Automatic annotation (TrEMBL):
The keyword Cell division does not apply. It is a multi-pass membrane protein. One of its GO terms (cellular component) is membrane. This is Chloride channel protein. InterPro entries: CBS_dom, CBS_dom_sf, Cl-channel/antiporter, Cl-channel_core, ClC. GO terms for molecular function: chloride channel activity.
Length: 752
């Protein structure tokens, strides 16, 4: 039974608040635009003023979108270049200082210098998260939440961008098994919100810019503009349209152009710089006509299944570690910082001691078959072997920059890395990666997945070539293995296929990559969700709405009446100012239904908390003695004032004032009214949304879910056949935990 909360003489609300079964703590975004009288008046006036003109408001807004979208792409291209350049310089300096001591025959001093250098970088990265906690991790779950309609605090703040970029540079330089490609998505989103701050007028516009920023982030991370658009479509944006498609494409194009231009620095003027931020290089098969044979597709499918299984184990293990971390570490910034230091020391010991114990020295080939292979030979790490003549296989994998290590696994000849070296790298590396992902540093998932997967694929390729020498080279299996493990963890298909293809530049791999990624997704999906969704659901107070309600036969029996909130707090078309202030200051409701209590609680509109705070701040109210407000027929607008029966009642707040308050609306605590003001009346009729979306109380939960998510609502009123409000549904009521509690409550009632 729904309780309608009325405790005042004027028909206001009480102290009860509607926050759903699961207790929504994170506010939602409003993607559905309201239709109020002041909005309609503004639209009509604008159309009248620009009638017959070539240049109108629509074209002006279109030009602004082009400009801001281009600026987002340019800025993100600069951020990506800056991140890549500094991280590469720090990594080179770190290893050069250790190599100098190693060449002199020392062991302890190089180890201490190497360990302390990595610890220093890790401490800086963790300090960035100490300053801005939301900068931790890859940021992809946070961006997905924002695009889903969840307003996480500081997710798009400028300080977040600084901490994210500086932190990921240091975490990569610290030698942790993390990548900088994932955080590029978050940095692109923050660039979008920062550049458009104060220029946007509603959450929908910000959402579209964030989607463009996320696409440009993927584009600059992998030099994959098409893959960036598809990533934003497949993994990011919950609301999509044709106009957003070309805007994300335009933003990715500008970001890619900026990055390519910056890469020409230091090279011949005008020569296109293909020094990509992340590249797999050119695949060449000497003595073979193709990269693989048809019957090897079955091996690739099997490798995809294995990668999906590894991804499921990785995700499950990381989820358990994250649960433990939340219980014992995450409640204290000091503990999170100390955890980073401890793990940095552990990673340094493993990455230094294992190559030190691996005493095998492999001769460097003197006859590179391609220019690319010759360049990769120069990246081989000697590490206590004869410099320029021999290299340490394990040190090459651990000490090389991750992107270089991946290219070496993809392109060096089949005997470059022994099975023993591959095993000694794969097992410790993926174990360290599963522990490190989620600590208090900015970190990505792509590179650890690709590097460990490439190692696994190379190992499978070596074994396959020993059994059947006519099979494809090991580098083909390395690429398929990288796709399998990353697909098993992230469960991406379309976007990841295109990203990998753009990185390889070879269309021969279309079919193997499609088969592998699809198989990895299906296999991993049998056991758990992808790692991003796991971390989304681990966030407290975050109610993420999937594209469709998860299939549960019991949910189809639920109706809107059963899942709506227990208490109903609402507004009347004309409310007492004191009542409005009390409601706003004692509840956290973001949208209120407006009900005509004189007509049996009929729904006449909705009004947001933000709009009412602006109205109170603008003193858009009047004393009841100034006008007879008994009927709507007496109301009219004259010279920006509300008049009743020809008497001026209260100033009218126009749409530009309401719109201009976004996104920094005054809070309820900032509203100050005197005792005299509390007796005044606030007319909500010109400002309320007069075309609210509602559902019948017998509507299924599936229909409610579809309407709420598709339209991007904050509140969904539930009405009976007489259009009388009987309750409201919020995002929290549609969360999976809330629906499960409703099912339990229904079961207990039936048993009683």
């Amino acid at each position: 039974m729904v309780k309608i909360v009325r405790r005042d003489a004027f028909g206001g609300g009480g102290h009860h608040h509607h926050d759903g079964k699961s207790g929504a703590r994170v506010p939602s975004l409003q993607y559905q635009l309201d239709e109020s009288e002041v909005w309609r008046a503004h639209q009509s006036l604008d159309h009248y003023q620009h009638r017959g003109n070539f240049w109108n408001t629509g074209k002006d807004e279109e030009l602004r979108r082009y400009i801001y979208t281009a600026l987002i792409g340019i800025m993100q291209g600069c951020v990506a270049y800056f991140t890549n350049m500094l991280s590469a310089a720090f990594i080179d300096h770190k290893f050069e200082s250790a190599y100098e001591l190693l060449e002199e025959g020392h062991v302890v001093w190089p180890f201490l210098r190497f360990t302390l250098t990595q610890l220093g970088f890790a401490m800086i990265a963790s300090a960035c998260v100490w300053i801005e906690p939301i900068a931790a991790g890859s940021g992809i779950p946070e961006v997905k939440c924002y695009l889903n309609g969840i307003d996480l605090p500081n997710v798009g703040a400028p300080l977040t961008l600084v901490c994210k970029v500086l932190g990921v540079i240091c975490s990569v330089s610290a030698g942790l098994p993390v990548g900088k490609e994932g955080p590029m998505v978050h940095s692109g989103a923050v660039v979008a919100t920062t550049l458009t701050s104060g220029k946007t007028r509603n959450d929908r516009q910000v959402r579209d810019y964030v989607a463009c920023g996320a696409a440009s982030g993927v584009c600059t991370a992998f030099s994959a503009p098409i893959g960036g658009v598809l990533f934003s479509l497949e993994e990011g944006a919950s609301y999509w349209g044709p106009s957003l498609t070309w805007r994300t494409f335009f933003c990715s194009m500008i970001a890619f152009t900026t990055l390519m231009c910056l890469n020409t620095i230091g090279s011949a003027l005008g020569k296109v710089g293909y020094n990509k931020l992340f590249s797999f290089g050119n695949f060449v098969w000497v003595g073979q006509e193709s990269a693989y044979s048809v019957y090897e597709l079955f091996i690739f499918v099997a490798l995809g299944c294995f990668g999906g299984l590894i991804g499921a184990i990785f995700n499950n293990t990381n989820e358990r570690i994250t649960h433990w971390r939340r219980k014992h570490i995450n409640h204290s910034k000091k503990r999170r910082f100390l955890e980073v230091c401890a793990l940095s020391l552990m990673v340094s010991c493993v990455t230094f001691m294992l190559p030190l114990c691996y005493t095998k020295c492999t001769p460097i080939p003197s006859d590179p078959k391609t220019e690319q292979e010759a360049e990769l030979f120069t990246k081989l790490v000697s590490f206590r072997c004869r410099a320029g003549l021999e290299y340490n296989e394990l040190a090459t994998l651990y000490f090389a920059e991750p992107g270089v290590a991946i290219r070496q696994l993809f392109h060096l000849h089949r005997h470059a890395f022994s099975d023993t070296a591959l095993i000694l790298f794969f097992i410790p590396y993926i174990c360290m990666a599963v522990v490190v992902y989620g600590i208090a540093v900015p970190s990505g998932l792509f590179v650890p997945s690709l590097l460990s997967g490439a190692t696994l694929g190379r190992l499978v390729g070596n074994l396959a070539n020993k059994l059947y020498p006519n099979l494809a080279f090991s580098n083909t299996y390395a690429l398929i293995g990288a796709a399998a493990v990353l697909g098993g963890m992230a469960r991406m298909t379309i976007s990841l296929t295109v990203i990998l293809l753009e990185c390889t530049g070879n269309e021969e791999f279309v079919l193997p990559l499609m088969l592998t990624l699809m198989t990895a997704r299906i296999t991993g999906g049998f056991f758990n969700d992808d790692l991003y969704h796991i971390h989304i659901h681990l966030k407290k107070g975050v109610n993420f709405l999937e594209s469709e309600l998860k299939s549960n036969p019991r949910h189809h029996d639920l109706t809107a009446h059963e899942i709506m909130g227990e208490n109903l707090v609402f507004m009347r078309p004309v409310e007492n100012v004191g009542t409005v202030v009390d409601i706003l200051q004692t509840t956290n409701i973001v949208v209120f239904p407006v009900m005509d209590t004189k007509d049996g609680n009929v729904l006449v509109g909705t009004i947001s908390r933000n709009e009412m705070c602006v109205l109170l701040k603008q003193r858009a109210f009047g004393h009841p003695k100034k006008a007879n407000m008994t009927g709507k027929a007496s109301e009219r607008i004259v010279h920006n004032f509300l008049e009743y029966d020809g008497k001026r009642f209260a100033p009218l707040v126009d749409w530009k004032t309401l719109e201009g308050s976004y996104p920094r609306y005054p809070s309820a605590s900032e509203v100050r009214v005197s005792e005299h003001d509390r007796e005044c009346l606030l007319d909500l009729r010109p400002y309320m949304n007069k075309a609210p979306i509602s559902v019948q109380e017998e509507a299924s939960v599936g229909r409610c879910y579809e309407i709420f998510r598709t339209l991007g609502l904050k509140l969904l009123p539930v009405v009976n056949r007489h259009n009388q409000v009987v309750g409201t549904i919020t995002r929290a009521d549609l969360a999976s935990d809330a629906l499960a509690q409703t099912m339990l409550a229904r079961g207990s009632k039936k048993s009683n």
